[in-house]
Amino acid sequence: MIAALANPHRFMGFSRVAAPTLGLAAAGLIGGGLALGLAAPPDYQQGETVKIMFVHVPAAWTAMLAYGAMGAASFFFLVFRHGLADSAAKAAAPLGATFTLLALITGSLWGRPMWGAWWVWDARLTSVLVLFLLFVGYMALRASIDDEAKAGRAGAILALVGLINLPIIKFSVDWWNTLHQGESILRAGGPLLAPVYLVPLLLTGAGYCAAFGALWMIRTRAEVWRRRAAGLALAAAL
Amino acid sequence: MAGHALEAGRYALFVWPAYGVSAAGFAWMIADTLARARRWRREARRLEKDRAP
To answer: Which residue of A has its CA nearest to B39?
Structure first.
């Protein structure tokens, strides 16, 4: 599948159909998930703030997915020198940065009434802040190098090094004592959440991931067109 | 049910800004992505047309 899509012509044909399909799926999943989530009863401990979970947790999941996608695309670019993989890595960064920022802001809005603090330097929050800085650093590094091939290689190395942060985020609540709550969904023994919260959370989570997929494809298409335009402009100038 | 869905009590000051920020984030991502795609598709097509004999 990946090898087949490495051909830009095939990718453009595939994504022309897949991107709007994923976009529609995202709208349905997020709409359905939020409708169920907002109608869920208040949590016995957290009260109505539990409603923040349906926008905070999916944003955090998608931020990690975006970094994983950027890392995988960077790996394919470094190993196989596929220009399309570099375009895909570059396209994932601003989306990942936005989802990470959303996770940080909504988390802060959840933390203030529950913990009494907008921010604490605990392992989970700090590692997610590092994720945001990795996305921003990746974009800044690429923007600082004029040669596109060199920028791609430097960015790919940074993206691959930063992959180490993903397991740190995931297991930070197990490895360290954190104010952030422990793992309650992807854990041995099954999720701790009641179905009335779990179902809408999984729907919005799937919707956020589908939205990332749709936007990522469209941004990658834009990058393919940009490179094509740059090539044509150069050919016209010679 | 709809009334309860919009009920956030004393936490409304935290709940609705979280939804507002999320909506704004999505709006920015969608608008920027579509604008970028439209711009470069148009530019590539214009240059292809100029190149054609």
So the answer is: A222
The pTM (predicted TM-score) of the whole model is 0.93
The pair of three-digit structure tokens given for residue A214, joined into one six-digit string = 């749709």
Cβ pair A229:B47 closer than 8 A: yes
The residues, any chain, with a CB within 8 Å of residue A171's CB and separated by 6 or more, are none
Q: Does B16 touch chain A (CB under 8 A)?
A: no
ipTM of predicted complex:
0.91
* Residue among A132, A118, A124 at smallest CA distance from A180: A124
Q: How many CA atoms lie within 13 A of A135 on its CB side?
A: 25
| Residue range B33-48: mean pLDDT, rounded | 95
Considering Cα of A56, then A86, then A82, then A214, what sign does the dihedral take? Answer: positive
For residue A218, the chain B residues in CB contact (below 8 A) are 33-34, 37
Q: Which residues contact A114 (CB under 8 A, 6 or more apart)?
A: A46, A49
d(CA B22, CA A40): 19
Q: Which two tokens stand for residue A18?
A: 């897949």
Please list every residue in chain A whose beta carbon sits closer than 8 Å to the beta carbon of residue B14. 49, 52, 109-110, 112-113
